[in-house]
Design goal:
This protein is α/β, with parallel strands linked by helices. It is 37% helix and 15% strand.
Length: 394
């Protein structure tokens, strides 16, 4: 089936999370993504527990729709093969520290003259240049350095990281969007270009209003947990059997919330009648509301609030997320066939297209070097890879 990026060749020198997530998204859209792995493979393959048939969950999460070839980039013959593949690629994505690809002879400047249409994306922790360009980074260190941990966590509590490696993923999405944009520009100009992004820069853009608040006022935003600085009530409430978030900070919603739980008297209490008073007296109001909410089950209170048109939602665990009727209806769980382990569920595409089924024909994350022969045949017209010193078994 034709997909938006069918026919686009992507040579993937990335490992860990941000780069592989970017190239997986390109593969989802139909690009032929060839993952170049050193002997031993991407470190994420062995990261765990948990494992699924010996594979780390993070590797499985970021490497579907790719083919794998093993090349030892320290060996002259494999380095030469890598350059040959690079000259056939539409896109190269790499996430080594700045300068590594140049030392290998496969940086953008080494390839651009012989492959003028090449789109070359570099992903790093801190950026391609500048005083901290050579610093390595993990999502945890970036969440701290880029400010998100300073605004995440309970009020008056310690800083907390977000629940997934979110800025690896954000950076990967930025890189993927930039690559597609550069491919579109290539249609008009006939030339590719180099793209650079980093986890650090990606996080700063996601500070959004918290960042603008500082730039415009000089104020550092506080940590509020699930609460809101200027909307009350607005937070996660504990019920008899779980948690329910309730967003009733504006006046009409507060009145509807109070009435729904049988506390219409709160609407008339001078301490709470206006938003300013509720913000000023939030601790007292939350003490009252916490007691009231704790008398309901999550489903009981949710039914009451939905009938009153008060925004609310249960705090779902993974089991509830993936069994949710909307998750199922929108195809957010897909089944792919693993060559040795049978059918395997994966997370579906967030974007749907009217002219193609993006998830059709998705393939399982590859074994190390699984496609070495096929890639060298398809891209370079070669036979078996046994002559490649760094190549693993295929």
């Amino acid at each position: 089936m034709r997909k938006p990026l069918s026919g686009i060749r992507v040579l993937d020198f990335t490992r860990l999370y941000a780069g592989p997530f970017c190239t997986m998204l390109l593969g989802d859209l139909g690009a032929d993504v060839v993952k170049v792995e050193m002997p031993g493979g991407d470190p994420l393959r062995g990261q765990g527990p948990p494992f699924y048939h010996g594979h780390g969950m993070s590797f499985l999460a970021a490497n579907r729709n790719k083919r794998s070839i093993v090349l030892d980039l320290k060996a002259a013959a494999d380095k030469s093969t890598a350059r040959e593949l690079a000259l056939k690629a539409d896109v190269i994505v790499e996430n080594f520290r700045p300068g590594v690809m140049a030392r290998l002879g496969i940086a953008y400047d080494d390839l651009q003259a012989d492959n003028p249409g090449l789109v070359y994306a570099s992903i790093s922790g801190m950026g391609a240049d500048g005083p901290d360009a050579g610093e390595g980074a993990f999502d945890l260190t970036i969440q701290a350095l880029g400010g998100f941990m300073s605004i995440t966590g309970e009020r008056n509590g310690k800083p907390v990281k977000l629940g997934t490696s979110v800025f690896d993923l954000v950076c990967g999405q930025y890189a993927m969007g930039a690559i597609v944009t550069a491919l579109f520009d290539r249609v008009r100009t006939g030339h590719g270009q180099r793209i650079e992004t980093s986890l650090f820069e990606s996080e700063i853009t996601f500070l959004v209003d918290a960042g603008m608040e500082y730039l415009l006022t000089g104020r550092n935003r506080e940590r509020w947990g699930s609460e809101h600085a200027t909307l009350v009530p607005y937070k996660a409430f504990q019920t008899r059997d779980g948690w329910l978030v309730i967003g009733a900070g504006v006046q009409n919603l507060f009145e509807a919330f109070a009435a729904a739980i049988g506390r219409a008297d709160l609407q008339r209490d001078p301490r709470f009648v206006k938003i300013e008073g509720r913000v000023r007296n939030r601790d007292l109001l939350y003490e009252i509301l916490d007691r009231e909410v704790l008398t309901y089950t999550t489903s009981e209170l949710r039914a009451k609030l939905e009938a009153a048109k008060v925004p609310c939602a249960p705090v779902n665990d993974m089991a509830h997320v993936f069994s949710h009727r909307q998750t199922q209806h929108r195809g957010m769980v897909q089944a792919i066939e693993h060559p040795t382990h049978g059918e395997m569920p994966v997370i579906g595409p967030a974007v749907k297209y009217s002219e193609c089924d993006v998830a059709a024909g998705w393939t399982a994350p590859p074994e190390i070097g699984e496609h070495s022969d096929a890639v060298l045949c398809d891209w370079l017209g070669r036979g078996a890879v046994s002559a490649l010193p760094g190549a693993g078994s295929t």
